[in-house]
Amino acid sequence: MPDYTALKLLGIAGVLSYGVARLATKAGVVGYNRYTLVAVPIAGMPKMPRGYRVEPIAPEKLATLEIDANSEEQARRFDQGLTCLAAYNARDEFVGITWVGTAPFEETMVHLRFEVPDMAIWDTGLWIHPDHRLGRAFAALWAGTAEWMAARGRKWSMSWIADYNLPSLLSHRRMQSATVGHITTVRFFRWQYMAQGVPKIVRIDRDAPPIMRMNLPSPALENA
User: Who is most buried in 55, 80, 154, 170, counting CB within 10 A?
Assistant: First the structure.
């Protein structure tokens, strides 16, 4: 359970979401998820740390590395048009990856398809090798994301975060992220309900996933 300081930062919605998600997990037949949708401006992303480099990695080379996504998940992401960016330090050691793309992306944690605006990309699956989590790998991967975006004229990187995942929320906030919405999904056996999706109710094993069209921050949020 999050400590008192974390609970204050998460707010009532985050605390309730954490509790309901835990109960749903224990119930088994019911699933509950609530996510915060965030957009990070390219201007808020860090510069490349000295000695690091980030570059796209081919599926064949990625398959030789031990990461958090198995071969099936890697293939699924590549098939959807995502690019895997790999980071290396000054000793040419592999330190982590992130996935970026501009095409619609279907998630597996919930039955859902994301679409981003023309000026944005979708980022997902940032992972850092356990031996390098105290270094500059995180900054390098975000700097590499910024370089990838700049080469394509994109200004925002969009993603979703469980609304009780405090470390991720705070790390995005340090990069001047803007909250652009929330989504809540409820699963009962094979049926899923999501108020914000189109359509709202789907059968997971039969229907196409609902579409979530992401929106850029409003002018008020951009200037916040």
Answer: 154
Structure tokens at 168: 């991720």
* Token reading at 5: 């300081």
pLDDT tens by residue, 162-172 = 888 888 999 99
164 Cβ contact list (under 8 Å, min separation 6): 2, 10, 14, 15, 17, 18, 21
> Is the full-model pTM beyond 0.90?
no
Q: What is the mean pLDDT of the chain?
A: 87
* Helix/strand number for the chain, H first, E second: 6, 12
Q: Give 55-102 as a DSSP string.
A: EE--HHHHTTS--SS-HHHHHHHHHTTPEEEEEE-TT--EEEEEEEES
What is the crossing angle of helices 166-173 and 4-27, to 10°? Answer: 130
Cα separation, 217 vs 156, in Å, equals 9
Q: 212 near 111, Cβ under 8 Å?
A: no
Tokens of 102: 């501009």
pLDDT of residue 4: 47
